């Protein structure tokens, strides 16, 4: 994915929104599967996935899923068998295509993903307090 610095940064934010709202990664981080540096590993994954897309043109679905699965296995000792990898791949690929086609639309997708995460956290914390 050859891109300007601005579109590359925007794609990185899209990857961050996808990965940081992915329940499997959040469970792995929250439960210490990545060790004491689990959150740093999750942040690092954003950079690595973004770079993977940047360095490889015309990625196939299985390539992206295998790459993310390998990262999760190596860094969090977690095997993904809940069927969520195709969704993570699809959202990440849409972000990549969005950067290429429609930057404004991608900004809205990122904002929506982050708002959904904030709302979910609010409801989770609210139910903990009741």
Automatic annotation (TrEMBL):
Q: What is the lineage of its organism?
A: Eukaryota, Metazoa, Chordata, Craniata, Vertebrata
Q: Which family does it belong to?
A: Belongs to the TSR2 family.
Q: Tell me, in a sentence or two, what this protein's role is.
A: May be involved in 20S pre-rRNA processing.
Q: Which domain of life is it from?
A: Eukaryota
List the protein's name.
Pre-rRNA-processing protein TSR2 homolog
Q: Which GO terms describe its biological process?
A: rRNA processing
Keyword list, A-Z: rRNA processing
The answer to keyword rRNA processing applying to this record is yes
Keyword ATP-binding listed? The answer is: no
